[in-house]
UniProtKB/TrEMBL annotation:
Limits of the HMG box domain: 48-117
Keywords, alphabetical: DNA-binding, Nucleus
Basic and acidic residues: compositionally biased ranges: 1-33
Subcellular location: Nucleus
Identification of the protein by name: HMG box domain-containing protein
A GO cellular component entry from the record: nucleus
Length: 154
C-alpha cells in the first residue's frame, strides 16, 4: 500500500511539473520577443498592373477551350495542372505567338509605367515650399499685380 501511495504522489508531482512547464511555455509565447512585422506598403491604385508572362497569356486562351471540353471540372488546380502539362509539351515554335503577345504587353506596360513615374515626379516637384505657404488666390493676386505693372513698394 505504501508503494501505491508513493506512485500516486509521484504522478501528482509530475502533473504539477508538466503544468508549470506548460505555463512557462504559454507565458514565453505571450512575450513580445518576436520582431514586429513591418506594415505593408500602401499600394497606389493608379499604378499600372504588371503584364502577364507568356504562360499566363496562354493560360487565358487554354482556360476557355478546357472549359468547353470539360464543363464538369470546376477546380482551378485541375485547369492549372492541365495547362502546365500542355505548356511543357509545347515546342518553342508553338510558344512563339504567346511569347510575342507577352512581349507586346510588356512594351505597353513599360510605356505606361514611365508615364506613371513621370506623373509621380511632377506631383512631387510641384509641391514646392513657396506654393504651400501661399494660397492659390494669393498667388493669382501676385500674378495680376505683376501683369498690370504696379509696384507694391511705392
Amino acid at each position: 500500500m505504501k508503494d501505491a501511495k508513493a506512485k500516486r504522489t509521484a504522478a501528482k508531482d509530475t502533473k504539477n511539473k508538466n503544468a508549470e512547464a506548460k505555463k512557462k511555455l504559454l507565458s514565453a509565447k505571450e512575450k513580445p520577443n518576436k520582431r514586429q512585422a513591418k506594415p505593408k506598403a500602401v499600394k497606389d491604385p493608379n499604378q499600372p498592373k504588371r503584364p502577364p508572362t507568356a504562360f499566363f497569356v496562354y493560360l487565358e486562351e487554354f482556360r476557355k477551350t478546357f472549359k468547353q471540353k470539360h464543363p464538369d471540372v470546376k477546380g482551378v488546380t485541375a485547369v492549372g495542372k492541365a495547362c502546365g502539362d500542355k505548356w511543357k509539351e509545347m515546342s518553342e515554335a508553338e510558344k512563339a505567338p504567346y511569347l510575342a503577345k507577352a512581349a507586346q504587353k510588356r512594351a505597353e506596360y513599360d510605356v505606361t509605367m514611365t508615364a506613371y513615374k513621370k506623373k509621380q515626379e511632377v506631383g512631387v516637384q510641384s509641391a514646392t515650399p513657396e506654393e504651400s505657404e501661399k494660397s492659390k488666390s494669393e498667388l493669382n493676386e501676385d500674378d495680376e499685380d505683376d501683369e498690370s505693372g504696379e509696384d507694391d513698394d511705392e
